[in-house]
Amino acid sequence: MTPEQSPLGKSSTYTEQYDPTLLFPIARSHAREAIGISARLPFFGTDIWNAYELSWLNARGKPQIAVATFFVPADSPNIVESKSFKLYLGSFAQTAFESTESVRDTIKRDVSASCGATVSVHLSTPHEFGKLKMEEFDGLSLDRLELEANVYQPDASLLGAAHDEAPIEETLFSNLLKSNCPVTGQPDWGSVQIHYAGPQIDHAGLLRYIISYRNHTGFHEQCVERIFVDIMKMCKPLKLAVYARYTRRGGLDINPFRTNYNLPMPDNMRLARQ
């Protein structure tokens, strides 16, 4: 269950006949232990996956298409390695199903079993495509700041907050998040939104901290959890929510959301770069 054992970064045989064994789970615990997260999680949330390359055959052999959205709970034991997920979804291409509901139920069963928790699945069929809107993050853009940056590995010491002043509540975002796949080294481009209540976080330090992920290797979910943990440790907010939306690769985008207080789940509207 390690990334090195997955199909990521390796030559693969693509099959177009349904095959649930293609799904490759990776335990969340290893990466969490590395940043000091115990079995008792300091957050809750979800990973929102959107798949744009799903197709299958109906009972008469006519191709069908849909955009699939998955909500994977943050407390699931496993994530699914993204290339294996792409291979799995590709295996539907020449497989006949009686209905869209049958496809959805099949995917929900398989992905839930791989993640070790119930995964919600929604299929948007072509008549719903017009309802799939775009938006940009709300809040104050950190990217407005003119500053120097020369740290490109995560460094929590870049973070700071005004602990001796009155607490505030604000929403900040940046489009300058970049990390790299831990196996292939391919870049993962993203945007991150941070909402918090507590001592005011130093904006310049937070932007430098986000930029510091530029040469870091880690899966999307792991990066967001590290951001959450570091902000909690260094800035000590009373409330914190971290939400990242990454650009798609292989027809998939991954959007982790972590919070320590009751907050509506994100609406999953995609950003322009996605």
TrEMBL record:
Catalyzes the NADPH-dependent reduction of 7-cyano-7-deazaguanine (preQ0) to 7-aminomethyl-7-deazaguanine (preQ1). The keyword Cytoplasm applies. The keyword rRNA-binding does not apply. Residues 14-123 form the NADPH-dependent 7-cyano-7-deazaguanine reductase N-terminal domain. The lineage of its organism: Bacteria, Pseudomonadati, Pseudomonadota, Betaproteobacteria, Burkholderiales. It comes from Paraburkholderia sprentiae WSM5005. NCBIfam families: QueF (TIGR03138). One of its GO terms (biological process) is tRNA queuosine(34) biosynthetic process. It catalyses: 7-aminomethyl-7-carbaguanine + 2 NADP(+) = 7-cyano-7-carbaguanine + 2 NADPH + 3 H(+). Substrate binds at V80, E81, S82, H220, E221. It comes from the Bacteria. The active site is at C181 (thioimide intermediate), D188 (proton donor). NADPH binds at S82, K83, R249, G250. Pathway: tRNA modification; tRNA-queuosine biosynthesis. This is NADPH-dependent 7-cyano-7-deazaguanine reductase. It holds the Pfam family QueF. One of its GO terms (molecular function) is preQ1 synthase activity. The gene is queF.
